[in-house]
Amino acid sequence: MMESRKALVDTALAHYPDLQAIYLFGSHGTEQQRADSDANIARCF
């Protein structure tokens, strides 16, 4: 799980280098995460 969160942050920063914060919410990264879970993110510029 931690590797996928790091990959998500790295990808977001590669596309939006001025990001101030990234919020991960929903089931991704929790014990409710399934193989078909998507990543719900909010970006703060």
What is this structure, in a nutshell?
By secondary structure, this protein is of the alpha+beta class. It has one helix and two strands; from the N terminus they run H-E-E.
Global shape: elongated
Number of strands: 2
What is the H/E string? HEE
Residue runs with pLDDT of under 50 for 5 or more positions: none
Q: Strand fraction band? A: 15-25%
Mean pLDDT: 85
Strand order of the largest sheet: 1-2
Q: List the domain count as a whole number.
A: 1
Structural class by helix and strand composition: alpha+beta
Summarize the biggest pleated sheet. Answer: 2 strands, antiparallel
Intertermini distance: 25 Å
**Mind telling me the C-alpha Rg?**
11 Å
Task: Classify the helix fraction into a percent range.
Answer: 25-40%
User: Total number of helical segments?
Assistant: 1
Overview of the molecule:
This protein has one domain. The model has no long low-confidence stretch (mean pLDDT 85). The protein has one helix and two strands, in the order H-E-E. The protein has 45 residues and is of the alpha+beta class.
Per-chain topology:
Blueprint: H1 2-15, E1 21-25, E2 40-44
Antiparallel strand pairs: 1-2
What characteristics describe this protein?
single chain, 45 residues, alpha+beta, two-stranded antiparallel ribbon, 2 strands, 31% helix
